[in-house]
Amino acid sequence: MTAPEFQIVGLGEVLWDLLPTGKQLGGAPANFVCHAHALSAAARLISRVGDDPAGREIIASFRTRGLPAETIGVDAEAPTGSVSVDVDTQGHPRFTIHEHVAWDRIAADQLALDAIRNADAVCFGSLAQRTPFVRATVATLLAATRPDALRIFDINLRPPFIDHEVITQSLAAANVLKLNEQELPVLAELFRLNGDPGKQLDALAGRFSLRLIALTCGGDGSVLFADGDLVRQPSLPTTVRDTVGAGDSFTAAVTVGFLKKWPLEKISHHASAIAAYVCSQSGATPPLPEALRQPFTN
Fold first, then answer.
1. Which of 58, 71, 136, 289 is 20 to 30 A from 207, alpha carbon to alpha carbon?
2. Under 8 Å between Cβ of 257 and 266
3. How do beta strands 222-226 and 212-216 pair?
4. What global pTM score does this model have?
5. What is the DSSP track for 39-84?
6. pLDDT means per 10 residues in the chain (298 residues)?
């Protein structure tokens, strides 16, 4: 077996999604890492769990998947995070995110710094930065990345934890942005972006020196924007079971494809196929079929 081509890090929350069908490993950065690993990257998560059965189960789950767990810290005081998830009749999730948990205390320790310094790509979001402590941790770790590393801001807005200062600072630190069709209007209002979505993406890319923007649009497909080029990908037909984790799988596939220097059209096609498959399954990180994985492993 060949060595993984890329070192990829997810930075932020790991938790249990408490779904109607039972609990599933969750948290956008954790989902991203699981999917990047499935696409043959050397992926790891920087996060924190409680010193409790739920936390030990998360660490065991990572090791069972073949993922390292050394950069998942264990907190002696705060419990492991969880999110109550209800899914509507269209398969769209509604989240209740519980507070004062272990991932609110992610630290920039030596293991985390070592992982960040070796990373080809780091994916982070806004939710984990709901506390000033983690906001400082994220800033410290992003400052330690290589200049050529991808710093992917998967904005992942989750009311009531929407902070305009966090958004602005995160965009300034990032060179790649991932967002969805509900989040673009929030940025358009915040930064007074005019015109159609394409013009708004162009303005964001110019303002924050973004190398790539990935916009997911639900049933209307997705858009990739880089260097003035905009590629639209129609949604692929699928029977939606739930959409939990689909965006994270898309982000992982776009990240690996971009690191491989694929054309935007190729990245878009394969990332959309993976996201469509995840929508057809229950839970955020179902095993991916070999046919979907194979293009990324060559």
1. 136
2. yes
3. antiparallel
4. 0.94
5. TT-EEEEEEEEESSHHHHHHHHHHHHTT---TTEEEESSSPPEEEE
6. 80 90 90 96 98 98 96 98 83 83 98 98 97 98 98 92 96 98 96 96 98 93 96 87 87 98 97 94 89 92
